[in-house]
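Note to self: user wants both folds in one dump. Writing first protein now.
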Amino acid sequence: MIILGFILLAAYLFALGMLLYGAMSMPRFTSEEVTPVTRFSVVVPFRNEADNLPKLVNSLLKQQYPSDLFELILVNDASEDNSKAVLAEMLEEDHLQSTLQSDLPQHSILDAVRTSNAPKKDAITTAVSNANYEWIITTDADCTLPKNWLRSFDQYIQAHNAVLIAGPVCLDPAESFLQKFQQLDVFSLQTTTMGSFAWQLPLLCNGANLAYKKQVFEAVNGFMGNDHIASGDDIFMLEKCKQYNAGEIHYLKAEDAIVSTQAQSSWRQVISQRVRWASKTANQKSWPSKLLGTLVVLFNIWVLAGLVYACFNTSALFYVIAIVLLKLVLDYLYLYSTATFFRSKLSLPSFLGGAILYPLLLLIILVKSLKGSYQWKGRNLKK
């Protein structure tokens, strides 16, 4: 038991140490002011988001970017609330005259065309087929975008050859323990994302802030081949783009590109969301992703088992505590580096509380993942 713990610890220290080094060594993108030239089709799938859409749309309309260089494509994924009516009212010319300082960008509100078992992928496919511009950039309805979001992507595209660009994502400022727990989880995912991109072995990205060329989406046949899997519009597009041109896949590490999203409002929703995330990870073709995921799961399960083992075998208590403490130190450093980039403080009490809870939550998610289905936004979806 103890030998296994040290083996897992060594592998964990190596894997997370490499990712942490990559994330910390990745330079922040800075660019001199250039004339905007890139044309973007901003794609927003939505389902039952009437409460969140006004905040998103307002942040889109406040973009410091020429209105003739981007369009908004909002795709309704069978909403059961008044999301479409809210959008239509917000985009009416009379309503905008008092809030919009520049011309209204071209925009459209579409209904998703369902062709597969993946509603969000169908919504994005519907949008891409109606997109007029060369770059697709996706975000979610519960997000808020910085005013220089599109400008930062344009500056990066002008400075680099790219077919896909992943952007940073964080949660809105956290107050409750539930929100802080999710914030720490997102920091961990962002460190993994940045670190893997730095080593030119990208493992993760987030559809809340993701850009790729329309011609590449068409060249790889969109989501064909993984449209039987409900989730993973971001990860599977990343994998396809890696096969298409691995050398032109980038991460935009820039404060002006940070998209903020909302935390889940209950532990039930958190678990459901993580089960959805786990479903796409299990279906990835990338062996490094599967290996890292397996390592994280096994080590956290070992922590639970090791603590129970030490209760019945006191001679092992010192070694178990030593392994757990070393894990905690690395986990804290792993989160601290990314929290600094997002200008967020890492609360030690919240970190310790999350460290205690995480292995238990991971075990629950693992068990629920074995069911083969999960609930999300009022739907029963298959993995």
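First done. Writing the second protein, which came from a different request thread.
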Amino acid sequence: MKQIYNFLNKVLLRNKFEWSSYFLTMPKIVITISILIFVLLGTRANAQNQNQNQSKESIAVINIGAEGLEIKMALMTSLVTLELERIGVYEVIDKYDVANHMKKNKIPLDESYGKTDLIRIGKLLKVDKVLSGSAEKFGSKIIVVLRLVDVENGKIEKVDVMEYLDQEEDIQIMIRISLHNIFNIENDDNTVEMLSNINLPLANTKNKVNLSGPRFGMTTTLGAVGQRLQAPKDEGGYNMFPVSSVFGYQFEKQYIAAGEFQALFEIIPALNALESGYIIPSLSIINGFRFNKLGFEFGIGPVFRIAQMAEGYYDASGNWTLRSEVPDPPADTEFIYQVDNRGSYRLNTGLIIAAGYTFKSGHINFPINIYVSPRKDGTTVGLIFGFNVARSKKKVR
């Protein structure tokens, strides 16, 4: 600015009484002033940049390993270097300079380095910090580990370990999140939540109980259906006992094990009423919830039965009459399908609600369940029990 002032003062004094000449030289003055301003601003900006670069600590990225991934170590190291330069916290040493120094000092590029080696390399490169680490696929997740080493103090300054979902196509975002963690830069919570691996609860022999095994019990049906089952055969009934037997087998498939809680599917095929000379098949598919420590469980699901059904109606006295037996029934007669040994086989569906408790004796489990299958024309209730031997956990190969 001093140069501009002196120049203007000189021009104005020289042209003090030559106003016509002054106006002719005015464009030259404006151009000269503009040039001087740009020169001064550029000089100041360069000085600020040099001071800023001098104030930044230097850092070198060394050997970012990649295990079980399609991306290799060299590319992973370049990716970390790129993201580190984008952050702008340190003056990042160019990867080619790093490679040349390591080659010059006969240090292999494909070796893993401990803290001592990283500090030695950092001193050879004359940097303040060294960043190393790895990205490794483990099962259904990718584990990213980054270590920031302080070369001058000879210690690991910070370590960040993150578990991400196995989505290698997003590896660059994972590296960015981990670098932000190292340098205390805030991450987008939604991005972190979408990529972070959700640890599933552990499942072992203590919190996983399998009660698959044979089932035995008894059942009774109330209401109109129960009356039809106990009715004489010549009236279309089955002349069954009020209480019928149940023989089946329970298959289980667990899909959640969280602490002492289990959620599972239970499939129970069964045969009913064998003592009455009949075979009435049923299939129950139950979504069960089990509390292993307490021993309690409950479940709900559909039940399917096959039975002989016939169309008919109940007369004013409450007697069951087949539609085919009365050619001209009353006009307001309501026809329904009901259990009848004179009818054809049909598939019946219903809802089953069950609750139970498991007694344990050594390695033997004794589950006892009560259940109800509500229906408007006849609710079924039953008691069923079973046993099984606790199985040892299979060895994972």
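Dump finished. Worth passing along: The CA atoms of residues 286 and 301 lie 4 Å apart.
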